[in-house]
Amino acid sequence: MKTYDQINDRIASGKAVVLTADEIMDYVDRKGAAAAAREVDVVTTATFGPMCSSGCMLNFGQPKPKIRITEAWIEDVLVYAGLAAADVYLGATQLRHGDPANMYHPGEFRYGGGHVIEDLVAGKSLQLFALSYATDCYPRRELRTYFTIDDLNQAIMVNPRNCYQNYNVAINKSDRTVYTYMGRLDPNGKNATYCSAGQLSPLLNDPCYETIGIGTKVWLAGAHGHVYAAGTQHAGACDRTAGGVPTGGAGTLALTADMKKMRPEFVRGVSLRGYGVSLALGVGIPIPVLNEQVLTRACIRDRDIPAPVIDYGIDYPQNTGKVLCHVTYEDLRSGRIEVQGKKVAVGSLSSYHTALEVANLLAGEIRRGDFTLARPHAKLPADTAMKPLVMREKPL
Amino acid sequence: MSDTITRKLMLYFPKCECEKPIVYHLVKDYDLVVNVFRAKVTPEEEGYLVLDVTGTEHNIEQAMAFVRTFNVTINLTGKGVTREDTRCTHCGFCVPYCPSNALRIDDTATREVVFDESKCIECLACIRVCPFGACASAF
Ligand code: SF4
Ligand code: SF4
After folding, report:
1. Ranges of each domain in chain B
2. Which pTM was predicted?
3. Which ligand 1 atom is nearest residue B83's CA?
4. What ipTM is given for this predicted complex?
């Protein structure tokens, strides 16, 4: 048994033993769980992939004379301005003004909210256009200016849902090509796509939320941030394997960090043909090896994680809840899975390669004493389930 | 007969040279086997041509000297399709869409996605599917 304080002391003295979730399995196989749990202090987990429920709060400061922004666009991408005078929220999936969307199907969606966020973090100069109805205290009615992230008072990433614990494998059993947030899916189940770091993914290494909770310190695209809430659609109550691993979506995390400290290579705009825009983020989360059970759970391997195969031709859009079958991440990584007796080529939207880089960067920071752990102040709920939206008539 | 080699070339024809039957001469006068991947004439009447030529090294050298007597630019690395390494996240999304295995994962431990230019048949599938805009076409 170790405590957070003991682990942090070892980190501070530069003596912490840190392994990535990719390395820990072989290490435990060699040393045995009991000995490894004594030796290893931290296991780093990570993921890199599109996370649509992401965005940022920006504060612009005030020009002379002042403005109470009511509508605003950054690089022609609409931001939400229903906040205080110079605060706006920029969302990852917002399209650029004038984007033809799917008018010429499939649309290209070359630039949108996710790309603005990428450009902001990369330090590029961006155009702000804002309108107002003007008040006695905020007389300006309009402004157009250029700014970089350094000009802002604050740029805080506030993501309502990141790090899905597990995720669907998308296939299309219909007879026409469909363009989805999981990419292009050819008819009659010709290809499939998935989106998870599997054995490296944070919540798959802590399936029962024993260490990752509200208040956990995280590495968000290079900045040190934290889990501020259970993410939207968090549904801890779900089907699980004997080892506690969810067999579908399940848990999610709401994350925040200072965007001024982020690294652009881990904040990347995403264009999904025929679907829209998004933002891919690199997230690293340390798991403190408090005891043998925590360590054993972090030793999960791709072959032990089932992912549900869902038909995005019919079942996903119609919300039937049907699961065609389950495959493991080991199957997925081989590039070929078997669905209903048929071999299907499969590709990933999530980058294991970049996730590994994140896990190693975080491990390095912890070893150098630059990243200490925070004990969560509340657990992620294990008993909430997903509710559908009930379509009702107006109550009498 | 001496050994034959294959080389991938990208030719750029400015407006004035588009109508000359250069490929015909490569086959007829220099005994080259030509495999055209992609050709395009822009609305500005400039032409692009990406092709493999197979023949003896000597004949290929002579043929290129011949091509250069026109106002044609030869790009020896044949980069009609490029992948910008700094923009590639190695997600592997493009891999199953690539018909020639030019984009593939060789090392299953690091899962790095390699781009093997020599195998690329310039189908442009990766340009359409890459979510990160890492792949591009010269024309
Ligand atoms: S889809 Fe794009 S980013 Fe992903 S591996 Fe292929 S080229 Fe790289
Ligand atoms: S252009 Fe076609 S063949 Fe070439 S790398 Fe892209 S998908 Fe593969």
Report:
1. 4-75, 81-137
2. 0.94
3. 7
4. 0.93
> Mean pLDDT for each 10-residue chunk of chain B (139 residues)?
84 81 91 92 87 93 91 84 95 96 95 93 95 94
Residue B113 CB less than 6 A away from ligand 1: yes
CB-based contact B133:B124 (threshold 8 Å): no
Residue B17 three-state SS: helix
Give the chain A residue whose CA is nearest to the CA of B94: A347
Contact across the interface for A348 and B91, Cβ inside 8 Å:
yes
CATH T-level assignment (fold) for domain B81-137? Alpha-Beta Plaits (3.30.70)
Check CB contact under 8 Å for A273 and B93: no
Give the number of beta-carbon pairs within 8 Å between A and B. 72
Q: So what's the pLDDT on residue A169?
A: 98
Q: Measure B119 CA to ligand 2 centroid, in angstroms.
A: 8
- Say how many C-beta atoms besides its own lie within 10 A of residue A358's C-beta: 29
- Residues 6 or more apart whose CB falls under 8 angstroms from that of A355 comprise A46, A47, A48, A49, A197, A200, A201, A282
Q: SS3 of A100, please? A: coil
Any atom of ligand 1 within 6 Å of the Cβ of B24: no
The C-alpha of B128 sits at a distance from chain A's nearest C-alpha, in angstroms, of 7
pLDDT in tens, A103-122: 999 999 999 999 999 999 99
- Name the residue ranges covered by the structural domains of chain A: 55-157
Q: Do domains B4-75 and B81-137 have the same CATH topology?
A: yes
- Judged against a pLDDT cut of 70, whether residue A186 lies above it is answered with yes
CATH of B4-75, one of 3.90.1170.50, 3.20.20.70, 3.30.70.260, 3.30.230.10: 3.30.70.260
